[in-house]
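[job 4417] fold queue: 2 targets
>>> target A
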Amino acid sequence: MKPSLFPVLLIAASALCGGLACAEKADRSKPMNVEADALRYDDLKQTSVFTGRVVLTKGSILIRGGKVEVRQDAEGYQYGVVSAEPGKLAFFRQKREGLDEFIEGEGEAIEYNSRADTVKFTKNAQLRRYRGAHLSDEMTGAVILYNNSTDVFSIDGAVATASPGATPGRVRAMLSPTPDADALKAGNASTPQTPAPALRATTTLGGEKK
């Protein structure tokens, strides 16, 4: 990653993860369900390849793409690689623990690792956080790595594959202030009466430095 981008990523990570939040913890133990046009399953290797309008759910996690390759290790951890349909982006969405908030992202490819509890978006990567139905934060870059267990994320803008309208090789971010306790109490009844932590167990972003 270019050194000049690193301070920007630190600011973004602080803005989103100021209170250490987590994604929906129950998702880790939920079964993975997949719908697709076709399936190729290898029992010996414990791998499945789904193709054609794939929709994958795991608790509050929702993944959509043109092709999904899923592998399970001996300890039951699952690993998925999602490829987008031609001309489209693969999609990922997950609820934040205890809040009416969701993290969602898109990319030409998505890698899900249940052991490391990370999600990686590559090529035309986009990440958004919604508070209820309102868009709160939005980021774009070449690669976005989101770590659910450490509540840290990183964005690499070095590769010139930014989304339409974005400057190639640059990170773009729109970050909203985290509501304070009084603002939350004055909000809807579904919002916890405590300051909202920044990303949660599934809504956290883990970073890799280049």
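>>> target B
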Amino acid sequence: MTSEPDDIPHPQGPGLPDPRAARRAFLSAVLRNPGQMGAIMPSSQRMARLLTTIVPRTGAPVVVELGPGTGAVTSVIDACLPETARHIAVELDPAMAAFLQSTHPGLEVIEGDAAKLEALLAERDVEHADAVVSGLPWSLFDDHTQRSIMSQVAEVIAPDGAFTTFAYSHGLLLSAARRFRHLLHETFEEVVVSATVLRNVPPAFTYVCRRPRLTV
């Protein structure tokens, strides 16, 4: 897998929340739920920009973010979106959800389980999402959890929408990571793997997926 490209667009917009506050919130989440945190650090800006290449820049799109954590990717999404967009974040950890709401006042934060995504969005009169950006720790999930969440993602994505997520390069040999990659190909007609972002900690890459098969 090659190193990261240098032609990823740099969206303009408001800056990130206080990095020290974000680090404290992230470390607190790790200490509360070490088994649910798949990252050792928030995503880098380069990784965040790569994840958000699927985010529509015009119209009135609905963008759903799964497992946004402290909002490293959230801020980049916000900088991309037109004023007419809706940005909805689904976060399982109550303290992290509260932190996101306090640092991103315009964000629609849902404290809930991504495995119930369709119902959570329906409660807010959202039928389809134009983009789903995930920061969930897929390699920590068992087969049932991976499939439950992916089936929900496939259900809510609009016909011309897209899904993106990331994986760590060092975890490629893990059985859960291999199982997840197979699940992506099973779920979507198109799965594109990006170059490796070496400046992320640890190095990681993204999956960009389109045209769900709806047979998970």
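[job 4417] complete. Note on B: The longest strand covers residues 157-168.
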